[in-house]
Amino acid sequence: MQYAWWSHGGNELSTGEKSGTSGTQLKTNVQTQLTSSLSKRSLAIHNMQTAADKYAVKAHKNLWTETNHSGNIVMTLAENRNFNERFAQRLGECAIWTKPILEDLHYNHPIGVQPVREAIARHVNQYVFKMGKFPVEANQIVTGNGVLAVLENLIYAVADADDGILVIAPFWHGFVPIITGRMGVNIIVVKTDPSTYWWPSKNALDEALREANRSGIKCTALMVCNPSNPLGKVFSEQQMLSTIRWATSRGFHFISDEIYAATVFDDTVPFVSAWDVASEHLSPQQQHLVHVLWGPSKDFGVPGLRMGAILTKNPQVLNVEAGASVFTMTSTPMQRAIAEILSDSTFVADFMRKTITHLKQSCDSFTSELRRHGINYIAPSAGLFVVIDLRSLLPSRPTFDDEFDLYKKLCDAGVVITPGNDCHTPEPGLFRVCPFGLPETCYSLLSGRIADLHADLTS
Amino acid sequence: MQYAWWSHGGNELSTGEKSGTSGTQLKTNVQTQLTSSLSKRSLAIHNMQTAADKYAVKAHKNLWTETNHSGNIVMTLAENRNFNERFAQRLGECAIWTKPILEDLHYNHPIGVQPVREAIARHVNQYVFKMGKFPVEANQIVTGNGVLAVLENLIYAVADADDGILVIAPFWHGFVPIITGRMGVNIIVVKTDPSTYWWPSKNALDEALREANRSGIKCTALMVCNPSNPLGKVFSEQQMLSTIRWATSRGFHFISDEIYAATVFDDTVPFVSAWDVASEHLSPQQQHLVHVLWGPSKDFGVPGLRMGAILTKNPQVLNVEAGASVFTMTSTPMQRAIAEILSDSTFVADFMRKTITHLKQSCDSFTSELRRHGINYIAPSAGLFVVIDLRSLLPSRPTFDDEFDLYKKLCDAGVVITPGNDCHTPEPGLFRVCPFGLPETCYSLLSGRIADLHADLTS
């Protein structure tokens, strides 16, 4: 589970059978002692655990399974596990296991072996950069052990500690530990709301920048996740272009996290990569400020493989990443296997088609359950999540404290989902739900539990 | 090659066929432009390239091979490739490829799956912690993608930027980019020399600490690599104990990099882990300050797999690493394969026996070539390197500049080895040679080239 995965690691490690202390006790001890012998910066790792994370620990101990229908339904993890079996089988068939390449056991170039960067280039050119006019080349790609890890390296390259990065909200709560916790860089939230189709107006961008400047924070980059996590929205070419122009004309880097690019199941708004937008409309110098992140984790449901990539035309960034990548190397035989799988065009085409069909169908099924139970939602067109609107369960003039109270009630009622506050939503009452990692049998149960809570609260 | 691997990444990436610029030209351009749009800290990655690295670029373009005997012999990489074939075959036989575990494709706990931590515990308890009295447990182990990566995470936990870490010299030049370049922590060199068996006296430790304090640097840890890289020496239990006591009595962390623990081919001085020393002699509180690093890269000749581990009894460090490890995860199927291989006791015992036998024989063969050509050396008892003594090729009262001149002459004569200055040797003229990654046929050639250079210089 995402919260567990990200935030409760310490507990799992330290409250094993042998320690005999509860997670809460241990955490308290640790917090007290930390300042004495560990670095101050390492406290950031602890402080990044949100109140929601902490509250959910209990709920994680009794999870819904096929045989435990009264367990808690945890839908906080953006993972698509539906075709894992097919992928695992293909992974096992890779030539690398039976016809090993001895060089794979040696030190290799930190940026990734040539075949995996070539395979990623081909794959991205087909499934992400759909214009086809501005293909990325293997030598514009740096790989690492997951998009999380390469994002850390990219932040390292574009911002010093105490600088600021503007991030278009709402955004994935995991950005905070990466950008702020580890790299010491301030996140400047760029607010959006439905009135501007969840995309920042020039005013919103200007205002965010002014606020940063007022606080003495030097901004160096603007970042977005397109398609949006948590909204599941695809932003239009025109939206992207105006914002990329706003950023690059100020000399800011523009970072586009496009890890969900191939999960678009409703192409009413066609997905256009920041790479294509920049290549089509910007000067070569400005194009050097645009960087795209991609990895197979979401399209193929394989975050456990740890593969991510920075795509950039900027020779300076490529040079820095070539050095920084020594910390973020993926096992070479695994790179080779991923290269083989991405190059198997029949497998990939079939896998992507099935995934998209399934996502669309699951989304229809989930949203129809929501409708049946009278729960409002923001209709997604991509991604592995649906934002539901529970404002009707909050008091009038609600605060984020009220939202947190509701979050706790939801947890207690067996519904663990991400509160909007953690994603910097513009107002309280929006929750991110990740239904696609669990079977459809959960959808009705989850919606029913929310509806029951609604009935309880309004009775 | 190690230099290439660490330092010349940028060139490979950016001076492909398309760029048409030489590495040197590009580097200059990059340096000029960097300050304008990249972070100041990212410059550290570039500045870490030593003068020796830069000079060796040319030599890397014409490498010795079985069919190019006039090529340059590069012996700067501590890698044992002699049993790669056997290992690759065993890797391919792992059950995980034919009987996949679907959970391996999912997000998993950043510290590593339970089976790999259990397998590492068993392996280390047999081959590293030889006392057998103080076994490490799986829940005291945090894994990551290589010892380099977990060392970065450990430094993050024990030191803030601008703090200092005392490092016993001579040491592996790669520590500098990790500790200083990325983590912003000062390295305080603790000098040693043959008069104290290459181990620091209390005076040397006190003096290094005083010097740090005089510069206003707060030291938080003492670090050593045992067996020593570059010396190939094993330090005695008594040496370790006195130094661990010196560190922990001051509240400093003690970091023992024991990646070469299972490469001891001459056990005149038995290897004793810092873990055992601390467990036997220190209070539980002091034991919390001792951390051991281990990985299979050297014993098995498999740095390309990217697996490393921190072993510690410190619950605070374990908690910080549980969070920090999200950046340093190894592919889960690869973790599972490594777990299976480490648990195959017949394979491991046979592999280790063959490796040790081969290392001993290769070392005998290499040093006998050195003797035959009149080249002095420091006899190693472990590791993948031999320090040779070329002081006779330097002028009287030599400086490290003289050593660098000799280094360049060696490069030009087809001998690429690491100058002592990069390892903080106490005086000029010592060079680290890594012979075991190349066939024995090179040994005579290398020694001959050095002898010829000697003849030229002294004629």
Description of the structure:
The structure is a homodimer of 459-residue chains. With 459 residues, chain A is of the alpha/beta class. Chain A folds into two domains: 50-78 and 349-458, Aspartate Aminotransferase, domain 1 (Alpha-Beta Complex); 97-343, Aspartate Aminotransferase, domain 2 (3-Layer(aba) Sandwich). Chain A is 45% helix and 12% strand. Chain A has 19 helices and 13 strands. In chain A, the strands form three sheets. A seven-stranded mixed β-sheet of chain A has the order 2-8-7-6-5-3-4, sandwiched between helices. A four-stranded antiparallel β-sheet of chain A has the order 9-10-13-12. Chain A has a two-stranded parallel ribbon with strand order 1-11. In chain A, β3, α10 (175-182) and β4 (186-190) form a beta-alpha-beta unit. In chain A, α9 (147-158) packs across α15 (315-324). The first copy, chain A, is globular. The model of chain A is unreliable at 1-35 (pLDDT under 50). Chains A and B meet through α1, α2, α3, α6 and α7 of A and α1, α2, α3, α6 and α7 of B.
